[in-house]
Amino acid sequence: MPVPTEVASSVTPEPEPPRKRQRTLYEASTQYKNWRFSKQQLSSIRTSLNEAAVAAIRDTFEADSPGSSSDVSFLNADEERLLVKFYASKIPQLCGACGFPEEVEATAVSYLKRFYLKNTVMDWHPKNVMLTALFLATKTANQPIPIDAYVSRIPKTSPSDILDLEFLVAQSLGFEFTVWHPHRALWGVWLDIQSLPDHPKEDIEEVYKTAKTHVRASRLTDAELIYTPSQIALAAFSLASPNLASLWAHSKDSSNVLQVIEPLKQMILQDSHPPDVEAVRDVDRRLKLCKNPEKVIGSKAYLARKAQEEKTAAEKRAKKAEEIRKAMEENDPFGEHIADEKKLDEAVNEALEDDD
Amino acid sequence: MATKTNIGGWLRGTTVRKGGSNSNPRSTAGTPVVQSTSTTIFGGGVKDPSGRVSEFSVHRLFTLGPAPCPICQKTLRKLAFTPQTFEDLQVEKEVAIRRRIAKEFNKRREDFPDLRSYNDYLEEVEDITFNLINGTEIERTEERIAELRRASAQLTSANAARELEYAASLQAAEEAEKLARQQRALQAQKEEEEEREERERERMKVIELLERSEMSEEQVKKEVERWRREREKKRLAEQRRQQQAAKTLRNRAAAQSQMLPDTPHVPLQDDYYAWQDKYTMLPTYIDPSHGAVMQDREGIMRAGGYRIEEAWERAIRSAVAGLDVMPIDDEEDQWNGTLGEGVTVEGAGNVVAASA
Fold it and tell me: Is the pLDDT of residue B36 over 90?
């Protein structure tokens, strides 16, 4: 989160351009360090995750009843992405119903996307993860509501559905909860345009509104995982009013950014539509069959896994108890030390007696 | 309290009952029966564990001189009777013996060349004590005591003297502190009184001056002011003198105690670039989305020190944050961004464009 280093009436007389080797505040954030990928990297991460998950689930099926996994059609990476996108599009509706501000909504969408870069849909269904991500977002964006109030607004959920996943979501995010959002950058662009010497005073509000819708649309794409929030904001603004955007970019000496955001603009226009409900329903139906049985509470595989874990834990405990018992009984509880001293004593006495 | 044999029960005091009369035929109705409390029960030099004697009886029996004990015929003196502090007579006896031994055998660890000999000495002493308490080998034990006493007469007396000194010094310190406290209290009192007197004197002076009525009210006031200032100066001088004295005292003490040098604290200084040169703040902006805040500047919107200017600055900073951070380009080497002109590549391979 950008820390306001100085108030408007700043102490330093003349702000300086960056020196070489001086890092920017954005570069110090975890969003820059850990959650920034290229398009290629994103797709490779998703496919490898998907393949690993399919292999694991296949094994579980095989262990349960050999041969059953051959006719199960697992999801592929694109279908997973579709499902995630669908549930991400549900978040704004939920936020509107509960009255959460835009920050919460944006944070929740980010969390959902990041979670599914580390986990697969077949292990954890997005419905519950979406609710958990939203609950977590209310907390990290400083708009917390009690779990009971939250659950009462959402039909057919109980607190444990959400709270069970909360730690998992946090862990998958690497406990990095701060997300930099484009809508604040967009507001900043709008304010800063007013400081341009020759800005047109009319219609800026309309432009701003349009740009805002573009930013909202961009949340359904992978934009925030590839570009920085200010670039997304500039792209949205540019879609709304290319002239103003280029004017502003020029004034910031960053006209090369305009080229960078061209593909981003395409992405916002093309990728940001919520997926077709029919397709999603289809995927969901198939998901029911290829879900990872280990994660379903009450299934055989789950119980087997639990038993396995119990066994290892019990073994560890037994080993430790054994160690302690040995120390107490077979050795002197105070250690070998004193026993040796006694022997030394006897030896000394003997030597003295023999002395003549 | 009936015992098995009540021979000598009058001596032992076992026939003393609360509120009852002695069954002892010798005691007349006039003799008051003492209530048996711990302060009145005496443990005497009797071997019998329940050998308690009441103070009255002791007085009665031994005023005329030493008399033989009816059981063991040992002569007892009144002086030998001591008040009992412990419920259990055994404990009382042991404590008495240990007290006597401790007076005689008071060598310390420093008096011995090594730990072994010290422990041997302690064991010897404990041996003697044990024998005395349980009445075994009394003669031999007494011999040993005499021997040891002879062997270390000087050391014993030296140790005894040292302990006395220590106790005396403790007391002296306590007294000194008490004295200091008293002094301070006196001082405070004196100061208070002085203040009161001064005020009195001032008033008197004012009255005097007015009475003289040669000067006008103004002049009187000025006089009083001048007078007050003089006194202030005197008081300050006095204070300063005292402080100086205290300081020199402290310095002397500090020099003696050799305080360690205090290394100056270097605060954490991070050196981030915050894009201050990329924007200039206007005093106000057109911001319809925050109309309520701008109208109610000094009211409820000011809670928690919120200032809309800070929010604007933060927004504008987000707008320029990371504007020049190029997305990861797959075609080139994975960690290199596209290089523009006059840019430096930072550690993570991402570029901050210097001012072009």
Answer: no
DSSP string covering B237-281: HHHHHHHHHHHHHHHHHHHHHTPPP-PPP-------B--GGG---
* Of the residues B106, B133, B153, the one at which a domain ends: B153
Q: Looking at A33-42, A246-255, B81-90, which range is the least confident one?
A: B81-90
What pLDDT is recorded for position B13? Answer: 54
A5 lies within 8 A of chain B by CB:
yes
Closest CA to A20 of B347, B324, B333, B325: B347
Question: pLDDT, tens digit, for every residue of A145-201?
Answer: 999 999 999 888 889 889 989 999 999 999 999 999 999 999 999 999 888 877 776
Q: Identify whether A17 is part of a domain.
A: no
Mean pLDDT of chain B: 77
Quick check: B72 and B85 in contact, CB under 8 A?
no
Residues with Cβ within 8 Å of residue B46, at least 6 apart in sequence: B12, B53, B69, B71, B72
Q: Do A191 and B315 touch (CB under 8 A)?
A: yes
B289-303 tens-digit pLDDT: 888 888 887 788 778
Report whether A275 contacts A221 (CB < 8 A).
Answer: no
Which residue range(s) make up the domain with A259?
Answer: 182-272
The mean pLDDT value for B190-199 works out to 93
Domain that holds residue B60: 55-153
Residues whose CB is less than 8 angstroms from the CB of residue A153 and which lie 6 or more positions away in sequence, other chains included = A97, A98
User: Which of B318, B331, B338 is the best residue to mutate to test the A interface, defined by the most A CB atoms within 10 Å of its own CB?
Assistant: B318
* Residues contacting residue B112 through CB under 8 Å, at least 6 positions apart: B118, B121
Judge: A260–B277 Cβ closer than 8 Å, yes or no.
Answer: no
- Tell me how far apart the alpha carbons of residues A278 and A291 are, in angstroms, rounded to a whole number: 20
Q: How many domains does chain A have?
A: 2
- Give φ, ψ of B122 to 5 degrees: -60, -40
In a domain, A229, yes or no: yes
Higher pLDDT, B119 or B307: B119
Q: Is pLDDT at B229 greater than 80 in this prediction?
A: yes
pTM of the model: 0.55
Separation CA A129–CA A126 (nearest Å): 5
A vs B: CB pairs below 8 A: 167
